[in-house]
Amino acid sequence: MSPRTTRRLRGTALTLALAAVLGGGLTACGAGAAASAGGTLRWASSYFPTHWDPVVGGSGAQFRELALVYASLTRTDEKGNAVPDLAKSWEYNAAGDQVTFHLRQGLKFSDGTPLDAAAVKAAIKRAKNQKNSALFGDLTSIESVTADGLDVVIHLSQVDYQIPQLLGERVLQVASPKAAQDPKKLDQNPVGAGPFTVTQVIPGTKAVLKKNPDYWDAANIHIDNVELTSAPDASTVVSGLQTGVYNFADIDPSQADAAKKAGLDVFVQPGFNAANISLNVNKAPFDNPQVVDAVRYAVNRKEFVDKLTFGYGEATDQPFPEGYVAYDPQSKDQYPYDPAKSRQLLAAAGYKPGDIKLDLVVPDSQPDAEIVQSQLAAVGITTNIKIDKNWATPFFAKNLTLSLYSTTGRDSAVQTLTAHFGPHGPLNLSSPYEPVGFEDAVAKVRRTPLDAADYAQVLQAATRAGLASRALVFTYSSPNLIAKSKTISALPKNPAHLDWTGVTISGR
Q1: What is the distance between the alpha carbons of residues 342 and 344, in angstroms, rounded to a whole number?
Q2: What is the DSSP string of 212-258?
Q3: Which of 83, 239, 320, 404 has the highest CB neighbour count under 10 A?
């Protein structure tokens, strides 16, 4: 079997690892399920899009909402593998430095613009070059793109077998090139080729969508309309579900028991969520490694889990869940909670209690911030919690000294690593800083096919190199907790994604 054939549509190591971590759970109506279209999904979202331009919105939690409107070259199945979406197939060349995606015939955007290779090329170019793009750091392997009818040929600057995983709905949600000529307009009036089209957007509040009859898989979309609403206060979401104001909602762990008692379906959609404290090592006092280590030892991860997740979350010191292929066992508990050691390190760095005074900048009121403030105060670091709405503006946070971040992970493990630790990573407050050896370790992963015998070992070594970064201190993992009316059938259990394929709404 040729290298060209053996590199097609595979990810055995990823499949096995995700199956171990995510196995079991809800199943959905299959793609061929016999179900009539109908019903309205009334979704109260905790992640209502600030930006509807996928290039600006990046691959944060709102990608799930943007995926209502936009499709991508690939999507993921229930085991986390890349499978066809806009692209019906793909293959690498023998050298592994070029991959060709073959698009489906007859695709078009909701504004009637053809969705061909030229449109995909334009989307990649915009993601790499648009001034306010939050995605350019994820696309560093892509050197150029050639458009040939329905064939998208991606020329790589290095061997990179992660590309099909990478170019899914987190990074390459493809917008109409006609609409994207005015990115500011696109940002509030999205035009894609996904399962639904937007008929109305009230910024920050509500979006109304209808089924897209031209979506390539429209036959398996059985929902007519979507009303996407920015979730109100967490304590009122369950009552909204009970009264029928909503029939689907992201819920806070504190509301899970109430939702269950109300007779709602409550489930955890598997994911790769991880929260962290972000430090800017380009600024004092975090330009001193001893101060960074002091923060590492000051963190009591169990407190975050106990107070914030109500038993649904887990303590974490990595951006991956334990048992996942990229999780590095050698790095587990490298910096255990030890406030006495933290105080010793601060003293060795020349700081007395109260000497360090910092703003902890967050976009809104967050209980996480109060826990961090308390834990740092216990070792002598004073923080003032400062709310700044500009935090959500792309790259605003790069000017901060101390902040909090969280991630929903990425479909490509390498993408997750570079987002956190790479010199241009959106979650790296300390750009262009990266830990020594990280670049080489990631390059080795890219050169390793996902089904190679040593893939897990090589990937974990890259995770270990990334965790040497002084810019992030991981704290806990929060669940993707969903409550829905029993009239909505089960969703495919795709890790971190909300896939509406085959989902039905009864009793409408």
Answers
A1: 5
A2: -TTSTTGGG----EEEEEE---HHHHHHHHHHTS-SEEE--GGGHHH
A3: 320
Report the CATH number at residue 297: 3.10.105.10
Q: Residue 77 CB: number of other CB atoms within 10 A?
A: 18
Enter the tokens of residue 34: 């016999």
Q: Which amino acid is at 61?
A: A
How far is C-alpha 252 from the geometric centre of its chain's CA atoms? 18
Q: Tell whether 181 and 279 lie within a shared domain.
A: no
pLDDT per residue as tens digits for the range 440-450: 999 999 999 98
| Angle (nearest 5°) at CA 164 between 456 and 218 | 130
If one counts every other C-beta atom within 10 angstroms of the C-beta of residue 261, the result is 10
| 248-250 and 480-484 beta bridge pairing | antiparallel
Closest Cα to residue 409, out of 170, 135, 174?
A: 170
User: 280-311: string of b/e by CB count within 10 Å (b at 16+)?
Assistant: bbeeebbebeebbbbbbbbbbbebbbeebbbe
Task: Please write down the HEC assignment for all residues of 15-37.
Answer: HHHHHHHHCCCCCCCCCCCCCCC
Contact predicate 143/97, CB 8 Å: no
Buried b (16+ CB within 10 A) or exposed e, 154-183: bebeebbbbbbbbbbbbbbbbbbbbbbeeb
Render 458-501 in DSSP notation, one character per residue: HHHHHHHHHTT-SSEEE-EE--EEEEE-TTBPPPP--TT----T
Phi/psi-derived region of residue 323, left when phi > 0, alpha when psi is between -120 and 50, beta in every other case: left
Cα 18 to Cα 127: distance, rounded to the nearest angstrom? 28
Do residues 110 and 171 share a domain?
yes
Nearest CA among 113, 121, 110, 192 for reference residue 151: 121
Question: Which residue did the predictor score with more confidence, 107 or 1?
Answer: 107
Residue whose C-alpha is closest to residue 256's, from 303, 308, 314: 308
As a whole number, mean pLDDT of residues 468-486 equals: 94
Domain count of the fold of the chain: 2
Q: Are 175 and 186 in contact (CB under 8 A)?
A: yes
DSSP state of 330: G
Residue 282 sits in the same domain as residue 221: no
Is 370 a member of any domain?
yes
pLDDT in tens, 306-358: 999 988 899 999 999 888 889 999 999 999 999 999 999 999 999 999 999 99
Element (H, E) at 346: helix 339-348
Identify the CA nearest to 324 among candidates 496, 125, 139. 496
| 86-100 residue pLDDT tens | 999 999 999 999 999
CA-to-CA dists, residue 446 to 11, 127, 324, 419, 441, angstroms? 13, 20, 18, 15, 9
